[in-house]
Every structure is written in structure tokens, then in C-alpha cells.
Design goal:
This protein is an alpha/beta fold and 543 residues long. It folds into three domains: 349 residues, Alpha-Beta Barrel (TIM Barrel); 52 residues, Oligo-1,6-glucosidase, Domain 2 (Oligo-1,6-glucosidase, domain 2, Alpha-Beta Complex), CATH 3.90.400; 74 residues, Immunoglobulin-like (Sandwich). Helix content is 28%, strand content 16%. Helix 8 links the parallel strand 10 and strand 11. Helix 8 packs parallel to helix 9, helix 11 runs parallel beside helix 15 and helix 12 packs antiparallel against helix 13. It is globular and about 75 Å long. The two termini are 17 Å apart. Calcium ion binds next to loops. The site of calcium ion has 6 residues, from loops.
């Protein structure tokens, strides 16, 4: 039966930590590994099964650690390898696994490989990166960096350009070189021996790039490389592996998350996250969310991967706005809508991810440009100012989509710096920490925190949440997100009102008067009606 084949990560919930903004243990204003260790009991209380740590490796921090200069060391701002071992061991005592973030598409330009590579064309490390000969000012092609400007940087000493799909300080690795792949696999096995529980693979869809054809995502060699890596590393352990793949389609996700284990456990796909931007334009070019389309996309992923792959479920991460501000209401209905979004997400099939602070209903921020820190925001601001965009519209885009929304320090209490640090924080806090913080949430039985705790527990208790088939209902409805999860054990109705108005729903009569497993309103309300941002799960047992 499906039961015995179930993997540990199929009914676990994974919590993402952005270390520099989580908890500072030594007063330098930056979150660190000892800080995470101090908060493990908080995470245990929430009920999560694993922590995905955004990168803590040695790094010049040009892109907050996604630019790695040593894969086998910890950046001193976060601690050292002994702290990492301690974190793995302390987490294990609490049945929590540590998932490392692997950035394999590029390194830092301060990585010894790149320093060597720049020394000369016959240096053994030269071929670790992607170079093209050329003339200064005549770029090899039109590839653009995700952080603005061309993806090529000129190195006069060599008379060559190197490829960087992200910042100039993030040169792309050349996966065509078997030595690169070998080094990477060795490094992964080293982390596996340390006892990590898995890996999140940064922009993994880019490693098969065919630079001259300007095909970056989903190159011919992408899946063969992942299969080789999986064979050489992941398959030797009981790991969760999740690839970040902005280009993923249900068809490619079936390869990535093939149940035969030949590639990864699952991928993060972003189709539902890209719907409120102008098609074909940048994420900064906003449009309002086409709600019916949003449901359709999520349902498509549910049905395509059912028994043929595995979904990851998320509405936020360190690159995205806060989900309650993005899809809910971060004013009057903040608590209701945070719980509603959690209900809809955790009701789906797949592995849910909770991004730090989401369990408190943390919100977006609106700062002046001088207070932002993210390289993506700062580069875009500069580029669009030069291109003559109105500053107001640039700021609107940053408020809606800027990555720094997710990166303000975690709000632990209502005291100095929200209890995040005794020193001066590396980044401004969201001023609403006086009301929204973990201390308040832990003292309030109706908090968003306890609602997440319950959802996480339900996933362990009710197998229909792990195994049930997702059957959409009311697909064309403009206000309500609704579906039924069907298994041999039970049918589960999941409902969420995405608006601040009362909304009607039609559900099979079998659910009338049945047990409500969880709901974000204190009383039952009326069958067929949902109050503003109301959500619930109603169960009908079959045996
Ligand atoms: C991924 C990361 C993002 C980073 C980029 C480059 O998208 O999530 O934070 O900037 O890759 O490594
Ligand atoms: Ca610190």
C-alpha cells in the first residue's frame, strides 16, 4: 500500500530559515547558527520536521550568501563548523533535520576556483567557468543578468568575458566540465557524512545551460546532470532534495520528482507566483492577480503530479513578498487571511514549506530606497531611474515584490529590536513588531502560530492530507478557493474565501453537519456561506 512507500518528507512540513534575519546570539546585529540553536524549541513547538537553511557557507555576502567562496566552511558572521555540527545534533534530538542550500550554478568570484581560473587560459581551473573570447565592448551575446545589465563581464588580462547570470560577483560554473561535477559531488557527500537531512538546490534548472544557443533553463544536459548527481550523492542517503526551478512545467517536474528517485524529491515551481506580473515582462511590472487562473494553475500541478511526482507547496520564501500581504489582507483581516492562506496551502497534496515569520503573519514593509539592502532591488532601482521611470512607480514595485519584504528580522517580542538582536540590526525591522511577534503569538491561543501548529499536526494525523486526490470544485468562482481531497479513508472539503466580503459556496450535501477539522472563525457559521477570509476543512469519514 501507499502507506509503506511513504517517505519521511511526504508528511513533514519544512521551515525555511533566512539565517541573517532569524536570531542574533552575539549582538553583532546578524542572525547566526547559535541563534538558531536557541530557537529550536520554538520550532519544535510549531511541529516542523526539517529546517531549510538559506546559505551559511563562507561568502563575501554580495547576494547574502548565494555567492559562495568556500562550500566546506561556515561564514564567520554565522559561526563555524563546530556550530554547524552542534545545530545538526541539537536539531536531531528534536526530530528535526537540517536541509542545506546548495548553490551549484555559480560560485563567488572570490572562490579559489575562480581566483585560479582568472590567472590564465591554461590554468587547470580556467575551464571551471564559462568564458568567451571577444573584444571589449562587443558582448558574446545578449544574455542578461537576473540582477540587471548584461550577463557578461570583461576580463582584460585574458581578453575574455565570463558568464554571470546573477551578479558580477557570481560567475557561472561550467557543468560541461566533468571535473566541476566531480568536485561538487565530493562536496555534497562531505555534507551528507555530517548528517544533514537534505538539500535545496538553488536555480538548479540553469546548470544544463547551452550558452551559445542562449538556452539557460532546461538545457539538453539538465536532466542527465541531475541524474548523475543524484546517483553519485543523494541516492546514498535518506534525504529530501528540492530543486528551485523557475522554468519547471508539469512535464519536467515529472522528471525532477520521478517517484523512482532518479532525480530529486520535488521542485519549487513558480507558475502560481508569476501570475500577478505582466506576461513576458519583469516581476516589477505589476498587474492584479487573476484569481481563477491562480486556482487553475495550482489545480493543474495537483492533478499532473498525482502519483507521478511530488509537489512542493509554498506561498512565500526569501525571494518573495510576505504571503499575507501578497494574497491576503495585511490590515483588518491579517489574522483571518493568514490562516485562510495556510488552510488552502496545507490542504493541498505535497510537502508544505513555511517561511520564517509566516507562522506569525508577518507583513511586507515600505521603506525609503536608502533603507533597502537587496542587490536585486538596488540594481533595478538604479536601472529604472536611468530609464526614466517615475520614482513612485519603482517604489510601488518594490513594495509589492521586493525580496527585502521577506528579509526584515524575525519579530520575537515587542522589546528593543523585536528581541532579534542586542546590537544594531543589519537591516531595519518592520515597525509593526510591537503588535506582531512570537511572544504575543505564543500567549494567544487564537494566534496564527497555533493555527499552523494545528495544520502541521493534522498532516501527521489524517492520511487523506498526504495521499488524497485533489478534486477541484467551483473552479470559475471569483472569490472562493475550494477543493475536495479524496482517499479510501475520508473525503476532506477545503474552503477559503479570498475576499473581505461574504461569499457563497456550493459543496456536496454529504459535508453538511460533518466534523470541522479546523477553521479560522470561532463558530461554525452557516453551511454554504463563508465570512470574510473564512477558511475551513470539513471531513467525512468513509470507515
Ligand atoms: C535563487 C535564490 C536567490 C538568489 C539566486 C542566485 O533564486 O533563491 O536568493 O539570489 O538564486 O543564487
Ligand atoms: Ca550574530
Amino acid at each position: 500500500m501507499a502507506e509503506t512507500r511513504r517517505k519521511w518528507w511526504q508528511d513533514a512540513v519544512i521551515y525555511q530559515i533566512y539565517p541573517r534575519s532569524f536570531y542574533d546570539s552575539n549582538g553583532d546585529g546578524i542572525g547566526d547558527l547559535q541563534g538558531i540553536i536557541k530557537k529550536l524549541d520554538y520550532l519544535k513547538e510549531l511541529g516542523i520536521g526539517a529546517i531549510w537553511l538559506s546559505p551559511v557557507y563562507r561568502s563575501p555576502q554580495d547576494d547574502n550568501g548565494y555567492d559562495i567562496s568556500d562550500y566546506q566552511d561556515i561564514d564567520p558572521i554565522f559561526g563555524n563548523l563546530a556550530d554547524m555540527d552542534e545545530l545538526i545534533a541539537e536539531a536531531k534530538k528534536r526530530d528535526i533535520r537540517i536541509v542545506m542550500d546548495l548553490v551549484l550554478n555559480h560560485t563567488s568570484d572570490e572562490h579559489p576556483w575562480f581566483i585560479e581560473a582568472k590567472k590564465g587560459k591554461d590554468n587547470p581551473y580556467h575551464g571551471f567557468y564559462v568564458w568567451r573570447e571577444g573584444k571589449e565592448g562587443v558582448l558574446p551575446n545578449d544574455l542578461k543578468s537576473a540582477f540587471c545589465g548584461p550577463a557578461w563581464e570583461w576580463v582584460p588580462e585574458l581578453g575574455e568575458y565570463y558568464l554571470h547570470q546573477f551578479s558580477v560577483k557570481q560567475p557561472d560554473l561550467n557543468w560541461e566540465n566533468p571535473k566541476v561535477r566531480e568536485k561538487i559531488y565530493e562536496m555534497i557527500r562531505w555534507w551528507m557524512e555530517k548528517g544533514v537531512g537534505g538539500f535545496r538546490l538553488d536555480v538548479i534548472d540553469l546548470i544544463g545551460k547551452e550558452t551559445d544557443r542562449m538556452v539557460m533553463a532546461e538545457g539538453k544536459m539538465l536532466h542527465p546532470y541531475i541524474q548523475e548527481m543524484s546517483r553519485e550523492t543523494f541516492q546514498k542517503g535518506d534525504l529530501v532534495t528540492v530543486g528551485e526551478a523557475w522554468s519547471a512545467t508539469p512535464a519536467s517536474a515529472m522528471l525532477y520528482s520521478n517517484p523512482d528517485g532518479s532525480e530529486l524529491s520535488m521542485v519549487f515551481q513558480f507558475e502560481h507566483m508569476l501570475l500577478d506580473q505582466e506576461p513576458g515582462k519583469q516581476k516589477w511590472d505589476l498587474r492584479s492577480l487573476p484569481f481563477v487562473e491562480f486556482k487553475k494553475v495550482l489545480f493543474k500541478w495537483q492533478s499532473s503530479l498525482y502519483q507521478k511526482g511530488w509537489n512542493s507547496l509554498f506561498f512565500s520564501n526569501h525571494d518573495l513578498p510576505r504571503s499575507v500581504s501578497h494574497f491576503g489582507n495585511d490590515g483588518q483581516y491579517r489574522v483571518e487571511s493568514a490562516k485562510m492562506l495556510a488552510t488552502i496551502l496545507h490542504g493541498l497534496q505535497g510537502t508544505p514549506y513555511v517561511y520564517q515569520g509566516e507562522e506569525l503573519g508577518m507583513t511586507n514593509v515600505q521603506f525609503g530606497i536608502e533603507d533597502y539592502r537587496d542587490i536585486e532591488i538596488l540594481n533595478m532601482y538604479k536601472e529604472r531611474m536611468e530609464q526614466g521611470y517615475a520614482e513612485e512607480s519603482i517604489m510601488e514595485s518594490i513594495y509589492a515584490k521586493g525580496r527585502d519584504n521577506a528579509r526584515t528580522p524575525m519579530q520575537w517580542d515587542d522589546g528593543n529590536n523585536a528581541g532579534f538582536t542586542q546590537g544594531s540590526p543589519w537591516f531595519r525591522l518592520n515597525p509593526n513588531y510591537t503588535e506582531i511577534n512570537a511572544k504575543q503569538a505564543l500567549a494567544d491561543p487564537d494566534s496564527v502560530f497555533y493555527y499552523y501548529q494545528k495544520l502541521i499536526r493534522l498532516r501527521k494525523e489524517e492520511s487523506v492530507l498526504t495521499d488524497g486526490k485533489t478534486v477541484p470544485i467551483m473552479e470559475a468562482d471569483e472569490k472562493v478557493f475550494a477543493y475536495i481531497r479524496e482517499s479510501e479513508e475520508a473525503d476532506l472539503l477545503v474552503l477559503g474565501n479570498f475576499t473581505e466580503e461574504t461569499a457563497a459556496y456550493q459543496a456536496p450535501d454529504a459535508f453538511r453537519g460533518q466534523e470541522t477539522l479546523i477553521s479560522n472563525y470561532a463558530d461554525e457559521g452557516e453551511f454554504g456561506l463563508l465570512r470574510p477570509f473564512e477558511a475551513k476543512m470539513v471531513i467525512v469519514w468513509k470507515r
